[in-house]
TrEMBL record:
Domain NADH:quinone oxidoreductase/Mrp antiporter transmembrane: 140-209
Single GO MF annotation: NADH dehydrogenase activity
Transmembrane regions listed in the UniProt entry: 12-31, 43-63, 93-111, 123-140, 146-164, 176-195
Xref: PANTHER family: NADH-UBIQUINONE OXIDOREDUCTASE CHAIN 4
GO BP terms, alphabetized: ATP synthesis coupled electron transport; electron transport coupled proton transport
NADH:ubiquinone oxidoreductase chain 4 N-terminal domain ranges (all copies): 47-135
Record's keyword terms, sorted: Membrane, NAD, Translocase, Transmembrane, Transmembrane helix
InterPro entries found in the cross-reference section: NADH4_N, NADH_UbQ_OxRdtase, ND/Mrp_TM
Protein name: NADH:quinone oxidoreductase/Mrp antiporter membrane subunit domain-containing protein
Length: 214
């Protein structure tokens, strides 16, 4: 109970979100000969992603399965005039998406240990940034925050496919970008409609607000 009380007070979700991003900055400033730098980048990225996974396990361990509301909720004011906040939290579905993301990233790093030989440092940086964006997206409780992170995922994915993909990587990366961008435009329209109907981008408030059928 003592540990559970402290976990609820600690911003564990933000720690899980931003730890990979902080780790990517450390990798950015690694200075050694190319071979040592590549090896250090892989080891550091693996450590950071593994610690992030262990932190996400705490979400599962201390998640109250008898509670239907969002848990580990954190809120910070972002754009006060528009009532847009940095608000994150997880429910019984999104908590598993967070865990799956943090579980797969170290596996992907291990899988690329020998296959990625070119621009290893940059590859690890991009992958950790992608992890931050994905975890943030799955735990976002504000539509604007969700949309920004959803769009942000496009950038590292585009880079990973375009730089380290196969023989048709350039074509594949642009195709991926265009298809996802099309969906993003429709998503933006939906968010604007919801905001016009409810006057808020808070997902929790939106679910409790009756929306006109007209």
């Amino acid at each position: 109970m003592f540990l559970q009380d402290h976990i609820s007070e600690f911003p564990i979700l933000s720690a899980i979100i931003f730890l990979p991003l902080i780790g990517s900055f450390f990798i950015l400033f690694l200075k050694n000969d190319p071979e040592t730098q590549n090896q250090d980048s892989k080891i550091f990225a693996l450590w950071i992603s593994s610690i992030t996974f262990l932190l996400s396990l705490l979400l599962i361990i201390f998640f109250d399965r008898g509670e239907s509301s969002f848990q580990f909720v954190e809120t910070r004011t972002w754009i006060q005039d528009l009532s847009i906040n940095y608000k994150v939290g997880v429910d019984g579905i999104s908590v598993w998406f967070v865990l799956l993301t943090t579980f797969l990233v170290p596996i992907c790093i291990l899988a690329s240990w020998e296959t990625i030989q070119d621009r290893v440092k940059e590859y690890m940086i991009v992958f950790l940034i992608l992890e931050t964006l994905l975890v943030g997206m799955f735990s976002a409780l504000d539509l604007v925050t969700f949309y920004v992170l959803f769009e942000g995922v496009l950038i590292p994915m585009f880079i990973i496919i375009g730089v380290w993909g196969g023989s048709e990587r350039v074509y594949a990366s642009f195709k991926f970008f265009l298809f996802t961008l099309t969906g993003s435009v429709l998503l933006l329209v939906a968010i604007l409609v919801i905001y016009s109907q409810t006057g808020t981008t808070d997902i929790v408030e939106i679910t409790q607000t009756p929306i006109s059928e007209n």
